[in-house]
Amino acid sequence: MGQLNLNTVQKFYGTFEVLKGIDLEVKNGEFVVFVGPSGCGKSTLLRMIAGLDETSAGDILIDGKRVNDLPPVKRGIAMVFQSYALYPHMTVFENIAFPLRVEKMQEDKLKAKVENAARILHLDQRLQQKPGLLSGGQRQRVAIGRAIVREPKIFLFDEPLSNLDAALRADMRIELAKLHRQLKATMIYVTHDQVEAMTMADRIVVLNAGEIAQTGAPLELYHKPANMFVAGFIGNPKMNMLPVICKSVGATGVEIEFQGQTATIPVEGRAGLVGQPLTLGIRPEHIQFGAADLAMTIAPSVIEHLGAHTVAYAAVNGEGENFCAMLPGSAAIRTEETVPVGLNAADCHLFDAHGIALERRLELGDVDIGLLNAGAV
Amino acid sequence: MSQPLMVNRYRWYELIGIYAGILAFLTFILAPFVEGFLVSLKPLSQLFSSPYRFIPQNGSFEAYRTMWVSVPGFARYIFNSFFISTIVTAVVLMLVVPAAYAFARFKFRGSGHLLGAFLAVNMFSGAVLLIPLFRLMRSFGVLNTYFAIIVPGVAFLIPSAIWLLRTYMMRIPRELDEAAFVDGASHFYTLRRVILPIAMPGITVVAITTFIGSYAQQFIYALTFNSKTEYAPLPVGLFAYFGRQEVIWNELMAASFVGIAPAMIVIFFLQRYLVSGLTAGAVKQ
């Protein structure tokens, strides 16, 4: 079992509050990703769960048992470090065997375990080599192997792929996802890379400035971000934010005015919004050529041709800049040439003056079959 | 790549300047050794010939044989020097390795002050403290023993050894300690299985400097705290070649060269552990 509960976990450095009361429940076998900008406290939180950093206040429970004062090895966790932290003077075999040697395990049992781990990670041919001879991906696999042999309840990964190049990172993402299915263990994974978060997680925890900004399945965060921070953080390129005014709140949604045009955005309205300034969020990939529910013109200042897509950075109706539109790869646009674009009300997000989202009227089951099933259970 | 890097390319006059500089300094460093060696080859009579000749005529290694005869205890002095330095080095390493690890890794109250104090101790040479040390040794009743030469040697060599090794250990990535800690290893287990092997080049440097330092400084303690010839180390033993009437210079020089040979051999063997790149592959840098 590998159930983890965090009850108002806090961390202070002196008087500076790094983590402001984190509440979280991680179910057994879940793959949870902590994601957030650097300095948001995600690594600190992981190190506190690991038992490397002390917890200032609150409880950390693993399988219902408070582990705040236990050393890492007694918590039943294993950790994979960003920098691999391999022992350079030991062979791959000895590196993987290290935790078992600490336990003083019998030689034949130890050998079987290490070889099993090596087989899972395709390191069978490398066991007698030193880490210095291995590639980055192989080194990271050795580090994972050292975590596997302990058969921990919870695996902790601290940005394990950020030192690898892009192609290798994609491969390792797939391997880690497979490994998770194979081991059926609880995994907590810290990254600043939203692609890693979106692709591997069962559930993503977005952290911002020491607080949980939102917790949810990847597509839930994408389609129903709870606030402007999550909306801007998840999705690449970033969501565009446009200032609008609330005209009325009705049964079908909230009617807004944007530069003289009105549209009804299908979100849950509430009283007291009329006349208030709101922020309309629209993802670059939801912007299309030609007029739609809302129309505007853009004059791109920079155009990036990515093959599958063309990304244009532009001013909207001659105002502002860095409005981003992701258009088809074949889009016939040129810099400084004005093109009409539009967006559909159904794709829009609305945020109030505090940056809190008005919930979109969208059944998540329509966009994520996995969530539909999860809801049925 | 056999071609030198662009950064290492010099013009001809720069090269001449560099080699001229090297030559000037090497002359000052090596000339006494060369002269000492030449003296050891000359018969005694030729040493005071006028005009003085640097190159020995009918030079021989005769002094290297007679030195053992004129000072019969010489082998014992070499052994003493070697013995004292080895013990000093061993004791220093045993104390300094855990201490340096602690200073490099743990935060504890007063660690900065302690390190500062070590540096301050280094500023006193042993000579300043000879009198108090002598009284101390006398009241303990350990004058005229190996102990009296070894203990002050250890004490005065520890501070610089801690500084040296601490700096080296601070360069070992902290993640290695953390990884071992997560895997359940105790501090001593981590030190023994992880840190020690990786710190080997640093430990070797400390061993060499300590050995040399002890070889050089034991003279002053041996002279003050010891009056028995059987415990005298090499530098004191060399005095035996100073006769009442004359100094047997050629044998003295020969004995000096023979005396430093064991130290050279030790250093030669130790430097094999000075391998760089031992941490390759530990962490991504």
Automatic annotation (TrEMBL), chain A:
Q: Where in the cell is it found?
A: Cell inner membrane
The answer to keyword Mitochondrion applying to this record is: no
Give TM regions: none
Q: Which domain of life is it from?
A: Bacteria
Q: Which organism is it from?
A: Rhizobium giardinii
Name this polypeptide is given: Multiple sugar transport system ATP-binding protein
Q: For this protein, what is any one GO molecular function term?
A: ATP binding
Please give one Pfam family short name: ABC_tran
Q: Which Enzyme Commission numbers does its entry carry?
A: 3.6.3.-
Location of the ABC transporter domain: 4-234
Automatic annotation (TrEMBL), chain B:
Write down the Pfam families for this protein, in alphabetical order: BPD_transp_1
The reply to whether Transmembrane figures as a keyword in the UniProt entry is yes
Which keywords, in A-to-Z order, does the entry hold?
Cell membrane, Membrane, Sugar transport, Transmembrane, Transmembrane helix, Transport
Q: SUPFAM superfamilies attached here?
A: MetI-like (SSF161098)
**Places the protein is found:** Cell membrane
Q: Which residues cross the membrane?
A: 12-34, 77-102, 114-134, 146-165, 194-216, 252-270
Can you say what this protein is called?
A: Multiple sugar transport system permease protein
